[in-house]
Structure formats: C-alpha cells, structure tokens
Amino acid sequence: MSQKNLPVVVLVSGRGSNLQSIIDAMQDGRLDIDIQAVISNRPRAAALEKARQAGLDTITVDHTKFSSREEFDQALQETIDPYQPGLIVLAGFMRILTPGFVSHYHGHMLNIHPSLLPKYPGLETHRRVLENGEKKHGASIHFVTNELDGGPVVSQVEVDVLENDTTDSLAARVLEREHPLYCQAIQWIAEEKLKLDNGQVLFNGKPLNQPRIMSTKQQSPT
Ligand code: GAR
Fold first, then answer.
1. Which of 41, 175, 179, 186 has most ligand 1 atoms within 8 Å of CB, for mutation?
2. Domains of the chain by start residue, with CATH
3. CA atoms of 204 and 195, how far apart (whole Å)
C-alpha cells in the first residue's frame, strides 16, 4: 500500500449514488483516497449536495456556458489540475470528452458503465438489454480512452436478468452492484495494484487480459 492517500477528483452529472458510496468508503477508511473536489457540469446535480454534506469542495463547470466541447474541456481541465489528482473518477458524468482532455489524463481516469462492455456502450443500456432478451447484464469499470465506453475494461459484475424485470427494477439491481465494484477498482489504483501501461492493463504487475469479475456476493473492496 502506498504511504499517502491518493488524491482524487470526481466528475458527476446527476444523482450521485456512486459518489456517495465512494465517500462512505473513504470515510470508513476502506479507500486510501482523498477526494479533493467534486465537479459537475450541471449546477443542480443532486451529487453536488451529497458532496457538500460530506464537507467536500464542489465546483460547477456548466457546459451550457461554452460554445464548443473543446472550450468546455479546457475549462474543466483548468479546474481539475490545481488539485493535482492522481485519479479522475467519472461517476455518472454524462459528457463525451475530447481527445485532448482524455490524453491529458491517460491512464489516470476511470469510468463506470452500466453494461457488460463491450456490449451496450452508450445510453439506455437497461432498456436495450431487456428488448434484446438478454439473460445477463451488469456493470463495467474501464480506463477512459477516446473510444466512447471503449477503453480497456478492468472489472465487471454480472447481474441475472429476471423474467419480470422492468427497466427500473433491472437498473436498481445493477446500481446496487456498481457501488462495491467501483470502490474495489479505485482501491486497486490507490494501492498501485492496477495500472494502464502503454495501453495494457497491468494487475499486480502482470497483463490483465480479461476483466476481473466481482462475485455478486462480494460487498466490500478487497
Ligand atoms: C450509473 O448507473 C452509471 O453507471 C451510469 O450513470 C449512473 C449514474 O448514477 N453511467 C453511465 O451511463 C456512463 N456512460 P449515480 O449518479 O447515482 O452514480
């Protein structure tokens, strides 16, 4: 384990349940990180209130105030960099990022996506999974690259699709699994177990050629 907690900036756009679970794990001493700031592109994101309640710095960089993605991402980068984070955590951050921004944080930015990538990148994953009659669904953690939801997948959790599932019931079951999945991957980075090196994911110094699958019974990061 590294001696110093990993400085982290979290980017959010909405509800903030993943943020809350990361805050809870940090405060319980289950994550060796210090959240330096929580940044939203939406001024009224519920996630900002969760961050404030936890006494964290919150900042809004409102994307509607910028005329291009490049200008928005430049402002976002200028907001993030003074915190000198070792990791950027996208926790329900619903913006497509420009190549310049992504390469600036290459290997230091994680995203959570509600599907078993490479299946179902993009939006409305739960609805599409049900429409296609899939039996399995889940969530993935990946390093962010220029391909939307296409960076190397680090870990996944699987969820059975039930016969009577609705979009909401399925989304809720996946979300419950997202929280420990994300904390686990963040802790791996904090412990320097997990790295992206020349496009190759290394886990404990060895190439990780398949995502690590979290057991559905496992609730806390290991
Ligand atoms: C989560 O389900 C997350 O996987 C998803 O947004 C939700 C945010 O919820 N992210 C994406 O779809 C990214 N493409 P939260 O704000 O309660 O954490």
1. 175
2. 6-214 (3.40.50.170)
3. 9
